[in-house]
Amino acid sequence: MAGAACLAYYRFGVSKETAIANDPRQPFQITKTEAEWRARLTPEQFYILRQQGTERAGTSPLDQENRPGIYVCAGCEQPLFSSTTKYSSGTGWPSFYAPIDQATGTLEDFKFAMRRTEVHCDRCGGHLGHVFLDGPPPTGKRYCINGLALKFIPA
């Protein structure tokens, strides 16, 4: 079912909200109208979290953040990543080798004629970035995350 929703989203222009809503794990714990999200987020955060945008590489101060702490969703403040799983990937985006258990969900992304795996917040559905299979041990995964989709809370 989720695969069909993603295919509809990427091939036929169905909105991201509709594609995620068709995921059998839904509804999300936190749901808001578009107007409510716009009131809560900056325009840049709205573009990334709610419209599946991407910030320019190298523009997020969180890419260089090295203090101990937790990275939470900028939309709903759910803890998503621990600083213990963060590493420098050299890509220009904050990168992690694993999320906090049950904090994120994924959808297949077929935009730009390539297959990628989109990562979203499992509580509000906000788009975070993508996960790739070129990361370090122990998982071999690289969660390449938009800094504007996150807030850092120092330990």
Q: Please tally the helical runs, counting DSSP H or I stretches of 4 or more residues.
A: 4
Overall mean pLDDT stands at 86
Structural class: alpha+beta
Report helical residue fraction: 10-25%
CATH fold category name: Metal Binding Protein, Guanine Nucleotide Exchange Factor, Chain A
- CATH class division: Mainly Beta
The secondary-structure element order is HHHHEEEEEEEEE
Q: How many strands, what sense, and barrel or not for the largest sheet? A: 6 strands, antiparallel
Q: How many whole angstroms does the radius of gyration measure?
A: 15 Å
Structurally, the number of domains stands at: 1
CATH architecture: Beta Complex
What is the number of beta strands? Answer: 9
Uncertain spans:
1-15
CATH superfamily membership, which one? Peptide methionine sulfoxide reductase
Which of globular, elongated, flat, extended, rod-shaped describes the shape?
globular
* Strand order of the biggest β-sheet: 3-4-8-7-6-5
What gap, in angstroms, lies between the N and C termini?
A: 39 Å
Strand content: 25-35%
